[in-house]
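Section 3.1 - Work completed
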Amino acid sequence: MTTKTLETRQTKPRRPWRRAAFGHAVLVSFLLVCGLGAGPCGYRRLDAGGSLPPNIRTLAVQPFTNQTLRYRVEQRLTQAVAEEILRRRLPVTLISDLERADAVLSGDIKSVTTGQALVDNRGTVRLFQIAIRSGVTLRDQTRNQVLFDHPSLEFRGEYEFSSDPRSFFNEEDAAVDRLARDFARSVVTTMLERF
């Protein structure tokens, strides 16, 4: 009886690959169902579809005011915001005449702070953290109403400097341009989330 049982076990071929294939098929099916059910959750890329109200055809970006002691920081950030609006290809025309514009975007740089973010083993600072606090207002001049007003927008970023961060904004440096572009992207994205 024991030899017959052993023979029977040996004659039945084992098929472990079927069990593994079945497990993989179940796992893939489960992931597909979860992926289809999750969907995009209502999120969209703002640089692909965000826009201003349809009655705004012309927009003027007023030079930002500077409450900090950083020299010319407002000029670089204002220019970067205007360039970001152009980059997004919004259906508006940027004009310089504030009186003729359908809407005016104004801003106020309230503070710019820097701090060390990464120090190497020799004690040299390799990365600095910059925080910019600003206020931004978008006013519809045709209807005399405020479309967007955020008195304390916060922007933070980490950047590599070639020298002391206190003189950072005085330099004509690629890192300053990168900072201004990142700041502008953050401001315009926050503004367009409103519409």
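Second construct:
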Amino acid sequence: MFLEGDAWYNELQELIGIRTVQVILFSLLSMLFCQFLKVIIFSIKEKKLMIKALFTTGGMPSSHTATVITLVVLMGFFQMSDSGKLEYSFAVALIFACIVIHDAMGVRLEASKHAQILNNLVKNEDEQTRIELGFGKKGKLKELLGHKAFEVVGGIIVGLIFAIVGYFCFA
């Protein structure tokens, strides 16, 4: 590779270990996989191609959950196989994953319910009034924000699969 002889490339390699790149790569791949699954699931539900599901929050499976599960499990696998013990960075990733998953099923799910209620309360108002009230560019609050428990479980399963595959690809 033409970059291998460059000094900055060598410094970057020393700074960022290959395990770090592998964890980032598989965590992001699990997120992207979930978003593509959402396109398929939403398209089947709506009986038309729903490309916008690539960029949506909420729905099945939880890409946030898949990402953090892949992150924490892959970090644990690599740390155990490389040094035989879990480092403090694993603890940080674990706590981060718990917060993200709790937020997805808690705060964001409640915000989804509130958006549905508010949209119903103003459904008889004209679009301009709803926009002036702060209901977004289209006069409607986004309702798909959080996740139900089974959507989070779907994200956990995807995250575990990507972590296991990632580990065995590079073990």
